[in-house]
Amino acid sequence: MDAVFSVPEPRNEPIRAYAPGTPERESLKAAVDTLAGERLDLTMTIGGRQRPGGGEPFDVVQPHNHAHVLGVAHHATAADARDAVAAAKAAAPAWRDLPFSERAAVFLRAADLLSGPWRDRLNAATILGQSKSVAQAEIDAACEFIDFLRFNVHFGQQVLAEQPFSSPGMWNRFDHRPLEGFVYAITPFNFTAIAGNLPMAPALMGNTVVWKPSPTQQFAAHFTMRLFEAAGLPPGVINMVTGDGLAVSEVALADPDLAGIHFTGSTGTFKLLTRTVGQNIDTYRTYPRLVGETGGKDFVIAHPSAEPSGLVTALVRGAFEYQGQKCSAASRAYVPASLWRDGVRDELLAAAESLSYGDVTDFSHFGGAVIDRRAFDKHAAALDRIKGSASCSVAAGGTADDSTGFFVRPTVVECDDPGHEVFTTEYFGPILGVHVFEDARFDEVVAQAESAAPYALTGAVFATDRQAIERASHALRFAAGNFYVNDKPTGAVVGQQPFGGARASGTNDKAGSVLNLLRWVSPRTIKETFVPPTDHRYPHMG
Ligand SMILES: NC(=O)c1ccc[n+]([C@@H]2O[C@H](COP(=O)([O-])OP(=O)(O)OC[C@H]3O[C@@H](n4cnc5c(N)ncnc54)[C@H](O)[C@@H]3O)[C@@H](O)[C@H]2O)c1
Ligand SMILES: N[C@@H](CCC=O)C(=O)O
């Protein structure tokens, strides 16, 4: 077909409420019951074929009920990784030669399947495997994932439309080639949408991918791979390997055809991958593109003019939704003494104490458990250190219980010392540090908070005084890639608040935007001269 297609205009997927007594709630409940009753073989998918990894098995469990095994996966071995890389390379020529519209149609179909018949399955898998509440699963596994699929197609088309100028007598063109080689996508446990987006975005632009999901997100990742297949993704375009990824990295990072890494996860892991690529730099055919979105220590700073109830709600939702396991989660707050004394303290502590964390298959809970034993132990140890610290006191929560699930209570820590680890270390759990300051010190506190932590992902300022907002916004310009005024620092929506941070928080390539898709193409410039000159002499030569 010869045509310049326009892709469907993307719209953000409406969020379902799952109110008691509604058919949508019953249908999701049934999907949760069905998936909870199975014990799946969580296979790899290489070249379109499912097979178990060749390494040690590991259980994928419900974090809120860790005795309940949802499925068993195996760590991929070096041989598995070599097969995945070979499958990606074999699929590359046919996939990149498919017109963009055909590749886009696969992902638009995936979006519609997920919006309809696959919605309950992906949501249920995310509730069970990652311990998300219904509301948190819906905004992630359904809405954000659907948005990534649809908006990426829109932005991909925008990339292709980007063309150079042409002087008379010639036609200059960009051929937006995919990268030469394969892309290695490594994804975190906390968002089903991110896990789907990281292999999808390079694939849309014509690349083939080796995808390594997090072991603790493997349950939903399994269904994501099935969704891509149901949408018509050809074998070998996305090859999913399971496990911790150590053997996969040994193979993939040493391969001459490694063309890019699309990573989201901790700062430490991304630094390790970057360092390894640096060490192997002479191995590669081309410089691998490194895209990494990493950790955060996200702040909320209130001015004395802030509206108190909005501030409290933002702190509660920003810090404690999904048990604080969002890279964007509010984990340090700076509150003026006047507001703190006049109600914010009492409201915040009461709200934190009232939150119910429990078995999220009971839809009435606000939240669930933290992801695994490693996270639980890390938070328990941090709480012990905080309790032993002279400058801090636990004002709410502060307890942890792993008898049935990995539960850590929503915790508020008041701390005099703004340099304390509670304001600098990413715990990635439901622990909020609060520094209370004398009202007149607002600008000084903003300046300290600006670089108290090495990260620069998200941050919020609460104020009604426009000059205070302007001053804080200016002083914090480089302290957050996503900056909020009078809103919580979480919950970025694809297409509306393109997401990503700098400093130790990543390469800031803004997932789900044109900026990210640009990283997965390597344009060839073509100049065609319609009537080539036939005389080599300059006019001045006579
Ligand atoms: N900035 C963002 O957009 C964003 C979004 C979500 C999560 N995060 C960050 O992610 C972190 C939490 O996620 P996590 O605990 O899954 O992070 P993690 O770094 O422990 O793991 C991320 C992924 O890397 C894999 N991995 C680890 N070492 C590897 C290696 N040598 N080779 C190949 N793969 C390897 C893991 O198995 C997992 O799939 C937090 O720091 C959070 O801030 C950032
Ligand atoms: N995009 C999500 C965060 C993803 C990281 O975990 C938000 O804005 O809350």
Automatic annotation (TrEMBL):
Protein's pathway: Amino-acid degradation; L-proline degradation into L-glutamate; L-glutamate from L-proline: step 2/2
GO cellular component terms given for this protein: cytoplasmic side of plasma membrane
Superkingdom assignment: Bacteria
Enzyme nomenclature, EC number: 1.2.1.88
Occurrences of domain Aldehyde dehydrogenase (ranges): 56-513
Keyword NAD attributed: yes
Residue ranges that the Swiss-Prot or TrEMBL entry lists as coiled coil: none
GO molecular function, one term: proline dehydrogenase activity
Catalytic activity, as annotated: L-glutamate 5-semialdehyde + NAD(+) + H2O = L-glutamate + NADH + 2 H(+)
UniProt similarity note: Belongs to the aldehyde dehydrogenase family.
Protein name per Swiss-Prot or TrEMBL: L-glutamate gamma-semialdehyde dehydrogenase
Gene for this chain: putA_2
